[in-house]
Amino acid sequence: MNLKRSLPNILITGTPGVGKSTISKKLADRTKFTWRDVSKLAEEYNCLDEYDPEYQCPFLNEDKLLDIMEGMMAKGGNVVDYHGCEFFPERWFDGVFVIRTNNTMLYDRLAVRGYTGKKLDDNVQCEIFETILEEAQSSYKPEIVVQLQNETEEQLLNNVQSIVDWIERWKEENI
Ligand SMILES: Nc1ncnc2c1ncn2[C@@H]1O[C@H](COP(=O)(O)OP(=O)(O)O)[C@@H](O)[C@H]1O
């Protein structure tokens, strides 16, 4: 915990397609926290380097992005949304929520998004092998890492509510 923050910073992470943006947007609407879509920030602040043909996406200039985000994170009240979590400074986050979706449902969501071939297979395997969960567990203290299953509309509402409740508890304990 960082004593200078009056509100917590939340990280919403997980494989592409698990529902991070959907949850982050609803959470930001409910809490008035600021939604930081890291992929969009990277584009907006020119942190994308040349295109990686193997993974069909541009390389991220992590150092430049972290420098830009540092000031945004200082006061707390951020919902940071990204499909990776190990390159952020550990001190930035009070709660890390790893969103999970079963493989067949994730496959369908990514296919609808237009993913095909290696990109589609790699992302589904990322979920099967729990890559992001392991990344989160090795990068942050276990007590701040929470897994949330996100497959149905009911789970979506419950997940948003449980993060809202988590924020309220953080405020009671830290303010
Ligand atoms: N709990 C859910 N139930 C049904 N569909 C969902 C749920 N959460 C997300 N989705 C859908 O799955 C797709 C991927 O969600 P998105 O939030 O864009 O994922 P991410 O930001 O992790 O890539 C979207 O079409 C979204 O509407």
Report on this structure.
The protein has helices at residues 20-31, 38-44, 62-73, 103-112, 117-128, 131-139, 153-174; strands at 10-13, 34-37, 48-52, 57-60, 78-82, 95-100, 145-149. Strand 3 (48-52) and strand 4 form a beta hairpin. It has one domain (20-170): 3-Layer(aba) Sandwich (Rossmann fold), CATH 3.40.50. The protein is α/β, with parallel strands linked by helices. The chain is built from seven helices and seven strands, in the order E-H-E-H-E-E-H-E-E-H-H-H-E-H. The model has no long low-confidence stretch (mean pLDDT 95). The longest helix has 22 residues, at 153-174. The strands form two sheets. A five-stranded parallel beta sheet has the order 2-5-1-6-7, with helices on both faces. The structure holds adenosine-5'-diphosphate.
What secondary-structure arrangement, pairings included, does this model have?
Blueprint lengths: L9 E4 L6 H12 L2 E4 H7 L3 E5 L4 E4 L1 H12 L4 E5 L12 E6 L2 H10 L4 H12 L2 H9 L5 E5 L3 H22 L1
Parallel strand pairs: 1-5, 1-6, 2-5, 6-7
Antiparallel strand pairs: 3-4
Helix pairs in contact: 1-7, 4-5
The structure holds adenosine-5'-diphosphate.
